[in-house]
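Subgroup meeting minutes
Present: P.N., E.W., G.H.
Scribe: E.W.

1. P.N. recapped why we're keeping a running log of single-chain structure predictions: easier to compare across weeks, and new members can see raw inputs and outputs side by side.
2. G.H. added today's entry (203 aa).
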Amino acid sequence: MSCWMPGCPALSMCRGLAALPITCLERAKDLKTRLSILLHKPELGHKTGSSSKLQLGSRRRDSSQEVLEWRESFDQLLKSKSGVNAFHTFLKTEFSEENLDFWLACEDFKKTRSKTKLASKANRIFEEFVQNEAPREVNIDHETREITRKNLSGATSACFNEAQAKTRTLMEKDSYPRFLKSASYQDMTRQAASRGSSKRSHT
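Output recorded in log:
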């Protein structure tokens, strides 16, 4: 809207806006942005809800028998992809997921065939998990740490074997029993058992 006539309301409005301090205009813009965020929040909530439903759906697809097998042995848990995921989620609640991440990194490392990649991967794993004050330092003794350090000079697929074994034992003796007693796993076993019984009743 524009007007050249003296005393025009539009002209006086424009002059009024121009006279306002810049800070006031910036605040008005900030308020507009905040309002638009608030207006879009229900949509974000809806998306979150749908993604949680998808996660529940994927959980239900887990084999009932497989979930129950995780309590038979730590090996059974580690053999199952969904078991490893469930255990990793539990370890996060205890702030000790680096132990499982290190074990998985070692498993992947053993599959490396290229000697060049083997050396670079070995250094990366050592710096991330094994060396003193590493970003995600695993709980191993000084002797094992030093043996692993020496192994890096001629990196082979076995250079982390001792450190990996110590970490595995720690998880098996310490974290794994607590995982089996956790509310999340108990809930999963109840669901698995009820699905199993409903299947039997339909046969």
